[in-house]
Specification:
Layout lengths: L1 H8 L7 E3 L9 E8 L2 E8 L4 E15 L6 E11 L5 E6 L7 E2 L4
Parallel strand pairs: 5-7
Antiparallel strand pairs: 1-4, 2-3, 3-6, 4-5, 4-6
C-alpha cells in the first residue's frame, strides 16, 4: 500500500483496476492487455464462474465488448459479469469508432 501511495503521488496511475463489490481488489481475476494501433484490448478471466466485478479506468474511455459486439460506451467504470466460458474481451480507446458508440448507462 505504501508503494501504491508513492506511485500515485508521483503521478503514476494504473491503466485500470478490477475490484469486488466491497471495493477490494479481485485477485482471482486474471487480466491481460494487448495493444493494437491506438486501442488496448483487455481480457478478463475469472477463476470462479459468473463472478461480478467492477472495472475502473483512470479517465472516461470508449469501451466496447468484443464478444457481444455491442456498441461502445464512454465511461470510467463498468460492472461486469465474468462468464464461465471464457474471458471478457474489451476494446479500450480514447476515441469513438464511427457507428460503434452509445451513451454510458446511468
Amino acid at each position: 500500500r505504501q508503494l501504491a501511495a508513492l506511485l500515485r503521488e508521483a503521478g503514476v496511475v494504473p491503466g485500470f483496476s478490477v475490484t469486488r463489490d466491497d471495493g477490494r481488489p479481485a485477485p482471482d481475476v486474471e487480466a491481460r492487455t494487448y495493444r493494437t494501433g491506438d486501442a488496448t484490448i483487455l481480457a478478463l478471466l475469472a477463476d470462479e464462474p459468473a463472478e461480478t466485478v467492477t472495472l475502473s479506468l483512470p479517465r472516461p474511455t470508449w469501451v466496447r465488448d468484443l464478444r457481444s459486439g455491442g456498441a461502445a460506451v464512454h465511461t470510467d467504470h463498468l460492472r461486469l459479469s465474468l462468464p464461465a466460458d471464457g474471458p471478457v474481451l474489451l476494446a479500450l480507446s480514447s476515441e469513438a469508432r464511427p457507428g460503434a458508440s452509445a451513451p454510458a448507462p446511468r
